[in-house]
Structures are given as structure tokens and as C-alpha cells.
Amino acid sequence: MPDDDAPLSAEVLGLPDKTALATRQRADGFGVVKGAFSLRLTDFDYFVFRDFDDRVGSCPITADPPDDAVLATCATGVSGTLARAGIRHRFEVYAGQGDPVGYLHHNWPKTDSGR
């Protein structure tokens, strides 16, 4: 796990602008709040696309869930939305003391993540 305290390691490439991503998330049933530099999912308030201005490309994603099952559910939903939009990504989900519990991806090369 790259960051010992992080339950989610995420990389996303080819993000659309913030408005387009919010529209895609809403179409899949997520509540979304657009901040000046973030996109937050209201049903999963701890799941945030950060430092996200209106550039196209990538941004950090952070998650601080109440428990592992909630994070897995949210990460699965967000991954599905990104995959349906053709957005290349990978999410590694960790529990407890850094035990891997999930790997979600779309069009991510195996060589980049070792999987």
C-alpha cells in the first residue's frame, strides 16, 4: 500500500472536465457536490476527487470511509461509472493494517500495478 494510512490507492487518466465528470456520476445515481477544486460524492462524503480544476487529465482521489465495506461499495460504483465512460483507472482497496481487499480497474496495463 503506497500510503500506510490510506485505504484507497487510485490512479485515473483521461478525466473529462469537472462538469462532465459530475454529469456522468449523477447519471449513475451518485449525488455530487462541485467545489472550487474538488468533486465530492454526497452519498459517500469521504470519497473526493481533489485538486480538480477544469483541466482535463487526472487528479488525486482520497477516501476516508467509516468502514471497509462502505469503501468497497463506493469504489465499485465509481469504477463502474468511469469504465462505462471509457476512463482509464485503477483502484486498490485496503483494509485494516494494509491488507488488500480489492482491485478495480479499466484498461490499466498489468505491468503498471504488478497484477
Structural summary, described in words:
The chain has helices at residues 18-27, 68-84, 110-113; strands at 8-13, 32-34, 39-41, 48-49, 61-62, 88-95, 99-106. 27% of the residues lie in helices and 28% in strands. The chain is built from three helices and seven strands; from the N terminus they run βαββββαββα. The model has no long low-confidence stretch (mean pLDDT 84). It has one domain (8-109): TATA-Binding Protein. By secondary structure, it is α+β, with helices and mostly antiparallel strands. Strand 2 (32-34) and strand 3 (39-41) form a beta hairpin. The strands form two sheets. The protein has a four-stranded antiparallel beta sheet, with helices on one face. Strands 1-6-7 form a three-stranded antiparallel beta sheet, with helices on one face.
- The CATH topology name reads TATA-Binding Protein
Radius of gyration: 13 Å
Instruction: Name the average pLDDT.
Output: 84
| Tally of separate domains | 1
Number of helices: 3
Please name the defining characteristics of this protein.
alpha+beta, three-stranded antiparallel beta sheet, single chain, 28% strand, 115 residues, TATA-Binding Protein
List the helices and strands and how they pair.
Blueprint: E1 8-13, H1 18-27, E2 32-34, E3 39-41, E4 48-49, E5 61-62, H2 68-84, E6 88-95, E7 99-106, H3 110-113
Antiparallel strand pairs: 1-6, 2-3, 3-4, 4-5, 6-7
